[in-house]
Amino acid sequence: MESKHIGMGVVICKDVIDIDQGFLFEYMNWIRKNQKCAFTYHEENGIKYAVNKAGFKFNLEDVQRAPQRFLYTKGEQLDIEVPKEYIYFIDSLEDAIYDALIEYCCYFPDAATTSWWRPNGHIVGYENGQGIGKHCDDQVPYEWGKPVGNKMSMHNSSSINLYLNDCVETHEELNGYNYIGGEINFPNVPATWRPKTGSIAIYPSSP
Asked: Is pLDDT above 50 for 153?
């Protein structure tokens, strides 16, 4: 593993885990096939909206741009037998994240006293044109349909992104497993990271 603190608590860890792209493609086809519809639809005060499994709300016109979130990565809540190799795969991803978090604590020892070790993660799958744009992963006081007042985070937390595919620059580099776009931008550093397979970004969840 190679790691670097690029500023403002953002740490990039490279070569944390090797990913078999063929196996990943097989796994993602399986989880897409077996996961139920990602959205439920509601109406409140005459406004129709969709809610995904993570609880995020979307305007109907934004639904097509929202990525799929797979919360039950080991097939929990599915009334089917889950292949053992899929469970082993997810376990290996969780181990990689654990190793990267230990590396993060080498830069910021106090993080070890406040980290929630081995929480349940999820996989986000993007199709062409999908994205989540500028956002904050931390919890802020907010009510759907009302103006945002206090934008300060309610608590401190960190986000951990494990990248399963390469982000490339040109169409000539596309091979069916990688993608163009999807760079992650940290405006407060400032820095932009072009993800590579098996790399991990750890950073404060607040803006």
From this structure: no
Task: Please name the residue that has the structure tokens 């349909």.
Answer: 145
- Strands 10-14 and 123-125, how do they pair? unpaired
Cβ-contact 164, 124 below 8 angstroms: no
Round to whole Å and give the CA distance between 195 and 184: 8
In this structure, are residues 71 and 54 in contact, taking their beta carbons and an 8 Å threshold? yes
Q: Report the C-alpha gap between 107 and 175 in whole angstroms.
A: 36
Report yes or no: 142 and 198 within 8 Å, Cβ to Cβ: no
**Residues 5 and 196: beta-carbon distance below 8 Å:** no
Q: What is the pLDDT of residue 81?
A: 84
- Could you give the CA distance from residue 199 to residue 196 in angstroms, rounded to a whole number? 6
Q: Which residues of 51-90 are buried (b: 16+ CB within 10 A; e: fewer)?
A: ebbeeebeeeeeeeebebbbebbbbeeeeeebeeebeebb
3-state secondary structure of 65: helix
Please give the C-alpha separations between residue 114 and each of 55, 56, 150, in angstroms, as whole numbers: 25, 25, 24
Q: What is the pTM of this model?
A: 0.81
DSSP state, 134? S
